[in-house]
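BUG: 3D viewer hangs when loading the predicted structure for this chain

Environment: internal workstation, default settings.
Expected: structure renders.
Actual: progress bar stalls at 90%.

Input used:
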Amino acid sequence: MKVFSSAYTFDYSWEEVSTANWRKYCPWNDQSTHVVAVDTLSREVDPATGILRTERLITCNQCCPAWVLSLFGGSSTSHVYETSYVSPAEKRVVMCSTNLSWANILSVRETVVYQPDPDASSPGHERTKFMQDAKITALCGGWQKIRTKIEEASIERFQENARRGREGFEAVLEMSRRVFGEEREREKARLNMA
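Structure tokens produced before the viewer hung:
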């Protein structure tokens, strides 16, 4: 098993980050072109806790090493199952995802958490902490050398996608702030005219 962990602080409030998270794979993000579809399977709010639970299916097209395809077959289209929990009361988003494609060869379990970063924030300038952990395990029998190579290749791809994902999400956050700001100004002007 290989483990990947990363942490980052976004220069945006938790409200901005948790809202923009639903637009992470939109056209504003030119770093996520490998994501071809995001389908919401279910969404519900727990009346007792106020936590929003969402299940999504994410479809990606990305190349896998040719030697893996020659050994195991398969295609470049993959599916990921994601469950997210948004707690407005705790100001916390937790997203858990697992691969559905190649699941008999590789297990990828990822957890992402967004929450306010009080250490990096100041009054009027809130920031949000992002923490990401992934456990990657090759499941292909007793072939230790092949398992190790698959895990190493997967960790490399995961690191690159994580870097690109952060850069793309920054663009989404920036565009969201601008668009919502413009919309607030239009609404204020409309109300002033009334």
